[in-house]
Structure formats: C-alpha cells, structure tokens
Design brief:
about 140 residues, alpha/beta
Length: about 140
C-alpha cells in the first residue's frame, strides 16, 4: 500500500450550507490536512475546474466531492462534463448525496463516478464518512498529479 504524505486540494460542490458546514467541521475535527474549496452550484463547479472568472487562480483539485441535486446545473451534468474533458477526467469524483435512488447510483457510475456515497443524516456518522473518504483517497489510493 502506497501512502500519500502530500495534502491534496478537494473541491466540494454542495448547495446546502448545513452540509458544507458539517464537511468543514469533519475536516477540522479529524485534523485533515487537505485544503477544501467550496462552490454551491454546477455552473460554479465547472468555472472553478476550467479556471474561468472568478476562479482564474483556482488550484486544480485532486478530488471532487459532488452533490447531485444542485441549482443551475445538476451534479449529473457536472459529472458528465468533467469526465468528457481530457484535462479533467483523471480527477476522482465521489458523488456525495442524499439520494438513495438506484437510478441515480447507476447513472452516476455510467457517467464514470469513482464512488457513490449516500450522506448520513446523523452528524457523527457524516463526519466518519468524510474521514473515510479522505483516508481512502489520500492515504490508500495513488492519485494522478
């Protein structure tokens, strides 16, 4: 098992302020060294990833945590566009959503999501899930630079 000692930049695409706050608290609670950027809709996510205004200086993320139910452009559309662009398709995308619908799970994997995780409603469980995602994608998995 190869361990990554380098912190990575994570892009959280989430429109629910409560879920954003819980994710940020999970990072702080577990002393996760990775940096976290947050955008609140699908259009902003694609602007961030393409380094378009107002995100010209955005750091390329090593991991995307993507909600499906977003305003302006939903997570499925974002996932489809990310995986269609050669310069972005190698970024792992974890769908982190409240939906447990089988069609959402299948569609996400059809669009080449790297993982599909249903958000727990319990705060402690949510923190544990974020920690496990971080451990897997930063410590266990070798990510492209």
């Amino acid at each position: 098992m190869t361990e990554s000692l380098e912190p990575i930049h994570i892009l959280l695409v989430e429109d629910d302020p409560g879920d954003v706050l819980m994710t940020q608290e999970a990072f702080e609670h577990h002393k996760i060294r990775n940096t976290l950027s947050v955008v609140s809709d699908g259009e902003q996510a694609l602007q961030f990833l393409r380094r378009e205004a107002p995100f010209e200086d955005a750091e390329r993320p090593g991991l995307i945590l993507l909600d499906l139910n977003l305003p302006r452009k939903d997570g499925r559309e974002v996932l489809s566009e990310v995986k269609a662009l050669p310069e972005l398709r190698t970024i792992p995308v974890v769908v982190l959503t409240t939906s447990e619908a089988e069609e959402d799970i299948l569609r996400s994997y059809d669009l080449h999501a790297n993982a599909y995780v249903t958000k727990p409603v319990d705060f402690d469980r949510f923190i544990d899930v974020v920690r496990q995602i971080d451990n897997f994608f930063v410590t266990v998995v070798k990510l492209p630079r």
